[in-house]
Amino acid sequence: MTTTAIVTGAARGIGATVARRLASDGLAVAVIDLDEAACKPVVEQIEAAGGRAIAIGADVSDEAAVDAAVERVVAELGAPTVLVNNAGVIRDNLLFRMSADDWDIVMNVHLRGSFLMSRAAQKYMTAAGFGRIVNLSSTSALGNRGQANYSAAKAGLQGFTKTLALELGKFGVTVNAIAPGFIETEMTAATAERMGVSFEDFKAAAAAQIPVARTGVPDDIAHAVAFFAGRDAGFVSGQVLYVAGGPTT
Ligand code: NAP
Fold first, then answer.
1. Helix/strand/coil (H/E/C) assignment for every residue in 111-141
2. Of 72, 85, 83, nearest to 156 (Cα)?
3. Is the pTM of this model over 0.90?
């Protein structure tokens, strides 16, 4: 029986790489992002490699859109038993310049989005007696200048992860979080642009602070997701794995 996975924010960056990795591990994958058309290239790459995937446009912070998206997954791919809550946005600013809208959107996408997706997907996992939820936190959960909204959301996801692990464990569902450090994606490229430095200089400065002396790539995160999503990881739950090239403080 094929396992069905949902990956949110999967049109690009970490989510796209996670979707391709889970497909190459044999899972059918629902590639969800705001714009359905933007998901299609990822679906085509998965299909070209012999995998199975569908593209779905949905805003993870929209309750009706989330419920409809999960129903489509059930109808077109089968009941989902793996969920990767990866969709994310940044709206960085120092506290005194941060607007309430910038606070709200970051909370809505990361926290409300992960809540709505998990609530919609868990009923299929508990019915199956098997499930894997992986939430994308961040090293910013430990505090990061200019990211009061994002660091609060990413720390919130760690509490969310531990609580779901407590509630869902007896149904065979594990819930874990991955907290990446600096990963080369459009998100970090946008941060470099906002700070007025080239992406190459920004990466070099970050790498100089990272014990393994390089910045991360989406495959580094996909590898950790594949571990948590695997059937053999059933005794690992409620954990936060920092994937940051070194210890975090
Ligand atoms: P990215 O390149 O910006 O990709 C994020 C994706 O999420 C985009 O395709 C975006 O769509 C989508 N998205 C945004 N809001 C959404 C919504 N409401 N509903 C559905 N999809 C939505 O980011 P990334 O770097 O791959 O990051 C992926 C995850 O890892 C995020 O949760 C991020 O916070 C986390 N993370 C990243 C890093 C890093 O260094 N890159 C470090 C730690 C944690 P649009 O393009 O249409 O906005």
1. HHHHHHHHHHHHHHHHHHCCEEEEEECCHHH
2. 85
3. yes
Which residue's entry shows tokens 């450090």? 181
Residues 4-181+217-243: name the CATH superfamily: NAD(P)-binding Rossmann-like Domain (3.40.50.720)
What is the rounded CA–CA span in Å between residue 98 and residue 142? 19
Residues 6+ apart with CB under 8 A from 126: 168, 171, 172, 173
**Cβ < 6 A, ligand 1 pocket:** 8-9, 11-15, 33-35, 59-61, 86-89, 109, 113, 136, 138, 180, 182-183, 185-188
Q: What are phi and psi of 122, to 5 degrees?
A: -65, -30
- Reduce the DSSP state of residue 99 to 3 states and report it: coil
Q: How far apart are CA 67 and CA 52, in angstroms?
A: 22
Convert the pLDDT of each residue in 118-142 to its tens digit: 999 999 999 999 999 999 999 999 9
Torsion angle, alpha carbons of 183, 184, 186, 191, to 10? 70
Cα separation, 172 vs 170, in Å, equals 6
Residue identifier of the C-alpha nearest atom 16 of ligand 1: 87
Please report the pLDDT score of residue 191 as a whole number.
92
Task: Please name the residue whose Cα sits nearest to atom 10 of ligand 1.
Answer: 9
> Active-site residues: which are they?
150
- pLDDT above 90 for 86: yes
Domain range annotation of the chain: 4-181+217-243, 182-215
CA–CA separation, 189 and 183 (whole Å): 10
Give the closest residue (by CA) to ligand 1 atom 27: 14
CA 45 to mean position of chain CA atoms: 19
